[in-house]
Amino acid sequence: MARASTLLEGTNTVQEYAEPYSLRALLAYFLRLGTFGFGGPIALVGYMQRDLVERRGWILKQDYVEGLALAQLAPGPLAAQLAIYLGWIRAGTLGATLVALAFVLPSFVMVLALSALYLRYGGLAWMQGAFYGIGAAVIAIIARSAYKLVRMTVGKDRLLTALFAVSAIVTAWTESELVWVFFLCGVIALFVNAPPRFSGRTVSVLAPWPWLVSGLHGPAVEGTLGKIFLYFAEAGAFVFGSGLAIVPFLHGGVVGDFHWLSERQFLDAVAVAMITPGPVVITVAFIGYLVAGPLGASLAALGVFLPCYLFVIIPATYFRRSVTNPSVKAFVNGVTAAATGAIAGAAFILGRRAVIDVPTLLICLTTLLILVRVKAISEPVIILASGVIGIVIKSTMGL
Asked: What stretches of the chain show up as alpha helix (H) in DSSP?
C-alpha cells in the first residue's frame, strides 16, 4: 500500500510509515462519517485530515492537500468532493463512486425521515432549540479543525501564511468564498516559488405512485421534477466553496424565483441540514421533498451531487499526473493556503451568527475545552448534549 505521513502533535516533524487499508475499511469510515460527522464542511474536512492522515495514516499528507486544492477549485460542496477524491486515490472511479454513496447516503436517509415528519406534523419547532445549542458547539469544533488544518497545510512558510491571511480576511469581510482569490493565490505562489519558463506552447413525467411526488401542496404538477433536477444541478455546477456557499443561491431560486417554499420553510430546511450529520448541502433533499415528495428529494440530491462527482473524477487523473511538476505544485500550495484561509474566514462568519449570547458563548468555550483536554469524548456525543441543552434553554428561558 501507499506510504502514509502524519504530522506529530506539537512539532513540525513528519513521520512516514506503511499503513495498509482496504477499500471496505475506507467505505466503513465514510459511512460512519456520514452518519456521525456533524459540523458542516469545515469540520468534515478537518475530521478527514485528523482521522485519515494523522491517526490512521491511510492518506499521504500530499494527497490530502492535493484533494483539498482540487475540491476548492471545482464548483460544488467542498467536503463531498474531497471525500470523492480520497476514494479515487484508493480505487479509481469505483472507489470514488462507492465513497460518494457511503458519505451521502446516511444523511440523505435522515433528511427523508425528517421531511416526512415535517409534512406530517406541520413543522419541527424543536429544531430551532437544538440548533441554538448545536450551532455554538459546532463553532468550537470548526475552530479546532481549522487550527489543525492550518498547521498541516501552511506550517511556517511565510508566503503561504500571507496568502492564508489574505484569503481569511477577504472571506470574513465579504462573507463569501471568491474563487478568483484561490486562483490568484495559486498564481502568486507559482511565480514566487516556481516561475514558469514560457516556451511558446500553451497548454418529466410524474411517477405512477402519487405519494412519491407529493409535497406540501400535494402531487407535483407536470414539469416540476425536471425543474428540480436542472435547478439543483445548476447549483452543484456553478456554486464554488463549501456547502454553506450554496445557501444564498438556493434562497434566491427556491423562495424568490420558483416560490416553492416560504422564508420559514427555507430556514427550516437549512436547520435540518445543520442538525444532521454529513454534507450540509443535503438540505436540497429536504427542499425537494417538500416540493415533490421522495422522488423530488432524490432528484434534488442527484442534481446537486452529480456535477461535483464529475468535476472530481474527470480531471483527477490529469491533475495527479501533473502535480509533481514544481510549477503545478507551487500553484496547488498557494490554492491550498487560500482554501485554508477561506475556511478560517468562514469559521469567523459562522461564529458571529451562532455565538449570540452568554449561554451560546459558554457552550462554545466548554466544547473547545473538552476537545482540547478530554480526548475520550467524541464529537457526536458533544453535539447531542449541546442540542439537548439548547432545547432546554430555549424552552425554559424563552430565548
From this structure: 23-36, 40-48, 61-73, 78-121, 126-153, 158-174, 179-193, 224-238, 246-251, 263-275, 283-322, 326-354, 358-373, 379-397
Contact assessment for residue 330 and residue 190, using Cβ atoms and an 8 Å cutoff: yes
DSSP 156: T
User: Is the pTM here over 0.90, yes or no?
Assistant: no
**pLDDT at position 200, please?**
39
Distances (CA, A) of 164 to 151, 168, 314: 11, 6, 28
User: What Cα–Cα distance (Å) separates residue 198 from each residue in 96, 195, 202, 224, 327?
Assistant: 36, 9, 9, 51, 12
Write out pLDDT tens, residues 92-111.
999 999 999 999 999 999 99
Judge residue 18's burial from the number of C-beta atoms within 10 Å of its C-beta, 0-12 exposed, 13-18 middle, 19 or more buried: exposed
Grid cell locating 336: 491550498
Q: Is the pLDDT of residue 18 over 70?
A: no
Residue type, 40: G
What residue spans define the domains of the chain?
19-196+204-399
Distance CA 351, CA 353 (A): 5
Tell me the C-alpha distance between 226 and 209, whole Å.
17
Instruction: DSSP letter for 39, please.
Output: S
Query: DSSP characters for 54-113?
Result: IIS--S-HHHHHHHHHHHHHSSS-HHHHHHHHHHHHHHHHHHHHHHHHHHHHHHHHHHHH
Helix (H) or strand (E) holding 219, with range, is strand 218-219
